[in-house]
């Protein structure tokens, strides 16, 4: 109950000034997420100034609650996907060099459950794909957080390259937003290179 | 200015005096009727306020995507609660089962109770579940939402006044403020103890064993120690709560509950078999969620504690295999493969066992055996949502 | 859960003490070129999120059910009056026997997420998105799936209202006055904020949103609620200008 109210008040109050978000216009875009990830978006995106981790970058069209593309650019062995909030009590799973490609969705799910209070999550489809010429996995998923009443859907592509994890996810509310922007994400994902 | 500061000091002093030990239950005029009376209506301004918030929050729970709506679960939880606190008390309660993996249940002022899946997973009998539900119900009967709110208001008001007084007189008031702040937490701990003891009285009348509430805390302590050990940290059980702990320590609770229970009639059947039967349909899903919490020690403890009660059945063996495969050291992968095979031998039917066994073997470099298992999965589930991916792995 | 209340109150004091207070902020967005359909518009008022209470001396919010109920009634009546004046009809949402409670709740949560995004990423400086800064752009919605809901049939628009009021207690007001003598310990009294949005039930588009962090009008009284509703409806889309008089 309190959580709901706090959520509400934070929502309205969380407008503290930060470094500005920047425009991602159509055209080639190198060094995404401080890595060798590159893309050539066809549509416009906004890059959030917020950082969830050293090699993490977030793009959005209407705000990260409504549509969100996250780039995980080369997470090395022994590191978590995002910065840990509480290393001691809520340690996140770490990338391991011997992971199979099918461990990528498992790792994403576990990270979400621990870090973002996601208490329902299901991986739906999994199929082989290529990411910048490397063997990759494409998967879809659904999840709901404890602290808001919006169910979300996701689609992602990930690969291990040189022992590092490269992963791009697209997430949006299942109602309306996911379908509205999924094609824009797919067009973007089709231009990904490493 | 000087007058003003002296006034502020007096004000702060008398507020401090007001903060002494406060009555545990709401004996405020107008609040004589128990909250569980049928169609009870809140009586005072504060009580109506607290209920209004609870009413809004209850709408949220009712419509939440996390609510476990499958037929029967919430009705079963209600049966357990009613057995624990008696039909008269439980009549007005609404129970919501929520898919949240933490060990928790809570009750709001208006009689809304939420029970988390993490509590359902860890309980080994109706009596254990009932001990926690009874404790939460005791908070409700003692109007703790209301009195806790009022106490926090008194205390934070005093902190604000002292802060302004400090600013006026240019003095550091942080230690005085901290004393009052600790009072808030101490009050919270007193509420917990009161609820524990009233909860125990319900247990003693319920027919469930009176010793169970103490067991629940012991088991939770063991889980926390196992969890810490699994993360190479020191176990953290202690007898005295810190100033800023909102609850008494588990150790202290388990001891005073056991002492009080020793003076009560022992009670009867914990109804473990009935509980297992009721949870069977949900167990695999709850276990899967627990395994994804990256808590090897805690999860292993839960599995062992469940197995100590029921034996290592197919679901528990499969979960244990998953736990080891997820941690993923070479030795873990070997152990996982073994547990998968034991689960199969114990009668685990699902085809995902072959897939996960295959993945464990593959990751461990046992390529041929791994492919064999993955092929078995594909033969059983050619249209599975991950069949394409698994086929690609086999082909490599 | 109990302790978070305390932390929140403590934060309120901390914020007040550092003297950061939300500057008067009020912002309206309209879908460019949108006007209400001609004729009488049927506006479904979704269950408003209304919270009215007191602010304790320390700044802790204290819910007051009586005030909230008064505010609920006053605001509903003032809204109906205001819209009748514009020639529209306001109907309160009723789930009825549609069985759509959970789905409609999800749409309400989605609207909440959209409203928060508009407020954070378009209305106020600080965290704006570059694509949302452009002049005359207001492109938001919850999708036309909402048109399929049985329980909203017959409505033209859905109106969402969110109001949060904390009236300074006597203690809080005295603390505010006393603190004026204390350098660096500014204490504000009272919180009055709200937002309102209108969704076109045929298209799901958000055609208007108004947000205000410092609202006037005491919602506990009929007159105050009328003033509050006027402020909440700031920039509410009107109908096309009346046809010019003949001969012009």
Automatic annotation (TrEMBL), chain A:
Signal peptide stretch: 1-20
Keyword Signal listed: yes
Domain of life of the source: Bacteria
Keywords, comma-separated and alphabetical: Signal
Protein name as it appears in the record: DUF1795 domain-containing protein
From TrEMBL, chain B:
Signal sequence region: 1-26
Any one biological process term the GO annotation gives: proteolysis involved in protein catabolic process
Coiled coil: none
Residue stretches making up the Peptidase M48 domain: 83-254
Keyword tags: Hydrolase, Metal-binding, Metalloprotease, Protease, Signal, Zinc
Annotated Gene Ontology cellular component terms: membrane
Gene3D superfamilies (UniProt xref): Metalloproteases ('zincins'), catalytic domain
Species classification: Bacteria, Pseudomonadati, Pseudomonadota, Alphaproteobacteria, Sphingomonadales
UniProt-recorded Gene Ontology molecular function terms: metal ion binding; metalloendopeptidase activity
UniProt family annotation: Belongs to the peptidase M48 family.
Glycoprotein as UniProt keyword: no
Keyword Metal-binding assigned: yes
InterPro entries xrefs: Mito/Outer_Membr_Metalloprot (IPR051156), Peptidase_M48 (IPR001915)
Protein name stated in the entry: Putative Zn-dependent protease, contains TPR repeats
Cofactor: how and how many bound: Binds 1 zinc ion per subunit.
Cofactor: Zn(2+)
Automatic annotation (TrEMBL), chain C:
Residues spanning the signal sequence: 1-24
Record key words, sorted: Signal
Highest taxon listed in the record's lineage: Bacteria
Record carries keyword Signal: yes
Name of the featured protein: DUF4136 domain-containing protein
Organism, as annotated: Rhizorhabdus histidinilytica
